[in-house]
From TrEMBL:
Domain Porin: 16-323
Membrane topology summary: Multi-pass membrane protein
GO molecular function: porin activity
Top-level taxon: Bacteria
GO cellular component, one term: cell outer membrane
Protein name listed in UniProt: Porin domain-containing protein
Subcellular location(s) per record: Cell outer membrane
PANTHER family xrefs: OUTER MEMBRANE PORIN F-RELATED, PROTEIN YDDL-RELATED
Keyword terms, alphabetized: Membrane, Signal
Signal peptide span: 1-20
Length: 346
């Protein structure tokens, strides 16, 4: 979550520089350095062997560092680019091979700050929908982000993605196509993603109301009894009035697997936040209900999330969150999760 109370004050495309340090700003362009250092601790996950039992209290540190630039090619056209890495201080892989990740790596163009195009590892258009209820740091967004047979819908960033954005008047329209090439293998083995495309639209209405909708299609080369093309869609509304924010999204996921098998679910999320001076108080609810033959996974997400954060300074805060998971496994209630964290941006 990279927002304060202005939850869905989203810029076009994948360009987010609200917490950037400008190192060059001239007539020919601008270069910013972005970064974040974060440490979180608590009982944040469930035991892989006993999914009803939470892990012991533990911590994890991460840091991000990147650069964003804009170069004026002409009076109307700008060249844009962003490169950002994430460093994980601790990792489950003892070899530390996964301790450095690329979050963004793209180049693009902007025409009069209204029409934009980018290609590379960019932000997905469906983030406009997810952002409506994405107000937490540790938990939340579990219903829209839950996987169907290992495939995740509404993923925030994708490689090899061509993204287009149009920001005009009250509208923010986005579209993308993901090549998913992995050097474009010619074989058609089941499980190889062929392509993916998505659309989203946001309308800024009067009285602090934002309306959002998103659609996504993932297509695979071949199917199995548990894997096939995945279609996801959702709608959302956000409302902000002074110190109060309310957001809600709902939608549907459907996978057409082999042997005419279909897996599907509906989901919805509710989020609220209220600013009290330097404190931000948050509450949310997430639910996903299956509509297929996976009887053991009828209700897949059913949780309440509560949180509070305190702004130490304009770019630093501390926060605490608590997750009440209502799912039962073998008639056993799942343990509650909880955590605390500190964050500094520059």
């Amino acid at each position: 979550m990279e927002k304060t109370l202005a939850i869905i004050a989203i810029s076009t495309l994948a360009i987010q520089t609200a917490n950037a340090a400008t190192i060059y700003n001239g007539d020919d362009g601008r270069v910013d350095i972005t970064g974040k250092v974060q440490y979180e601790a608590g009982a944040l996950k469930y035991d892989k062997q006993d999914k009803a039992q939470r892990l012991n209290f533990g911590g994890d540190g991460t840091a991000r560092l990147g650069t964003w630039f804009r170069y004026h090619l002409s009076e109307d056209v700008d060249l844009l680019g962003k490169l950002e890495w994430q460093f994980n201080a601790e990792d489950e892989n003892d070899a530390k091979t996964d301790s450095l990740d690329v979050r963004y790596a793209w180049l693009g163009f902007s025409y009069r700050d209204q029409l934009e195009m980018a290609i590379g590892r960019t932000k997905s258009p469906t983030s406009q929908l997810v952002d409506v209820t994405d107000i937490f740091e540790l938990f939340g967004s579990a219903a829209n982000g839950n996987r169907i047979n290992g495939i995740k819908s509404f993923e925030s960033k994708k490689d090899d993605q061509l993204t287009l954005g149009l920001n005009y008047d009250r509208w923010d329209l986005r579209a993308s196509y993901v090549f998913e090439d992995e050097r474009r293998p010619r074989e058609t083995e089941s499980g190889h993603r062929d392509y993916q495309y998505s659309f989203s639209a946001r309308y800024r209405a009067d009285m602090g109301v934002d309306l959002v909708t998103a659609y996504e299609r993932q297509s695979f080369q071949g199917t199995t009894p548990l894997l096939g093309d995945l279609t996801s869609w959702g709608v959302g509304v956000g409302y902000q009035h002074n110190s109060l924010y309310l957001g809600a999204i709902g939608g549907h996921k459907s996978m057409q697997a082999g042997n005419n098998e279909e897996f599907s679910s509906t989901f919805y999320e509710l989020a609220s936040a209220y600013q009290l001076g330097e404190f931000l108080v948050m509450a949310g609810y997430n639910k996903e209900k299956g509509e297929d033959n996976l009887a053991s996974e009828g209700t897949r997400v059913d949780e309440y999330v509560f949180g509070v954060s305190y702004q130490l300074m304009p770019r630093a805060k501390i926060y605490a969150e608590y997750n009440i998971d209502r799912i039962k496994l073998d008639n056993r209630s799942r343990d509650d999760l909880y955590g605390i964290g500190v964050e500094l941006k520059f």
